[in-house]
Amino acid sequence: MLSTTPRGIARVLGTVTGLLIGLAPPAHAIDLGFRDFQMHGFASQGYTYTSANDFFGNSQGAGSLEFTELGLNVLGHPLPNLLFAVQGLYRDTGGSDENDFRLDYANLDLSLPVSDDLTFGVRGGRVKNPFGFYNEARDAIWTRPGVLLPQSIYFDSLGLRTSELASDGGLLYGRYRFGDHAFTTELTISELITDPTTVDFITGFVAGPGTLSGRPLLVGRAGYEWQEGRFRLLFTAVDVDQDFEPSSPQGSPGNAKIFAPLVSAQVNLEDWSFTGEYLRLDSDRSGFTPGGVLLENTSESYYLQAQYRFAPRWSALARYDALFANSDDHDGSAMARATGLPRHRFYAKDLTFGLRWEFLDDWLVAAEYHNVDGTAWLSPIDNPGINDPARVREVSDGHWDLFTIMFSYRF
Amino acid sequence: MHLRSTAGDRLGAVNRGRRLGSLPFGVCAAVLTLWCVGAGAADTRVVPYAGSRGSVTSLTRTELRDIFFARQTKWPNGDPIRVFVLPDRHPLHVRFSKEVLGVYPYQLRSTWDRILYSGTGIPPTVVNTPQEVRKRADDTPGGIGYAEE
Prior knowledge:
Chain A has helices at residues 6-21, 161-165, 196-203, 333-339, 392-395, and strands spanning 30-31, 38-50, 68-79, 82-92, 100-113, 118-128, 166-178, 181-192, 210-214, 217-226, 231-246, 254-268, 272-287, 295-311, 314-324, 347-360, 363-374, 399-410.
């Protein structure tokens, strides 16, 4: 539907022009002529159709083209073991992402080999958060197994996305290898990056507008890999502790603590890859409402995924992905009674089948079909009224289908 | 197995066959069978190629993995490492990945994409022909690629 509005047309033309410029493509990267400094970029345009509910813009009816991801980066080594890297990103996914242009990462990375087998390093600046398998590079479809990542863990339409992706601060890392075995560890200490939707998410949608502050975000990740990833195991933990200051006198200050452990495992065979991740998100919220009591909640998310590389440029994807807003209330009945919202607002079970085709070097198209039961990860901005007990039944449907396709070019 | 690794051209193989003709039949047949099996898999071998830096055959598989997965960026003498590779589906790239590094090519690509789009490393430079890999490795200080011999 958006393609018929001037803004939609301009967006599509801009993307197509970008892709056409790419038709005389630079050979894989642009060499900047100073040491190994080089520039890379990518342009991805998607289309999304849903049978009910809206995802990435007004996706019902004629579908939505509000799914654009453009990136440009410069990387190089000023010194052999000092890395400079910066990436700018333009991204539009309807109400789920209204930040347009942003600095995606901008960091210096100094690696300090202690011996042949042991390396330590430090990275500082705007760093991508080490979270599970896919988080750090997820806005380039080239790193994704399909069009969309499992939404139960890699939130693309919920407010936590901005904070999930990157943060401003520093990161220490280490890697120890022993033959075919490697052990890795990373610890990030940084300032949370937030936008208004993140604040809503962290405060639990009850606090109204305001700002967050508090001690730095901590993200730790430890991993094991065998033979460069034939088998990979990761354990990630995120720890957030933020105080909320309302911007209006009617609001009440509060505090939100979130602790999120994530376990990830992957097996990579010649033609097949199998991946699973399991996340719990424990939140303790106090204040926010006059006389507010401590509200504790634990959500639960997991997915199981198979990829099959059945021909040289092709791969197929099958995935079952589930999110439960409360781990003790999988069918949402208790939360439905407490809020007046339908049960489907408190879970989402998504069965996905997809295909991905790299039809030329550095060009790909991916398409997938989702059969979804539940609406827990839908954006309240794209779906106004979905958190309103009086309107939610009219504006949403618990059972729905989603089809999405994306083209991408990169250099 | 050393026969497989040195049987580069047909002429050499024929000469070797003649010399083997004077050996007892059983040994001769066994060696020929071994050679045939080797030749059936590949007539040549793939080796890391560091151009003007001379031989890099002393590098172990583990060290080569550190270099080609872009974790090691500095030679022991302090020079920067520059890595040159062929496109993912080029037969020589596939052979180098599997036979020398002992990994599937998609493992390399997935690491390179992750480091590129997360700002944590620089993937190798992709060039189009084996000749270009050699030339770039020759011309670039600290350059390394691979070659068929």
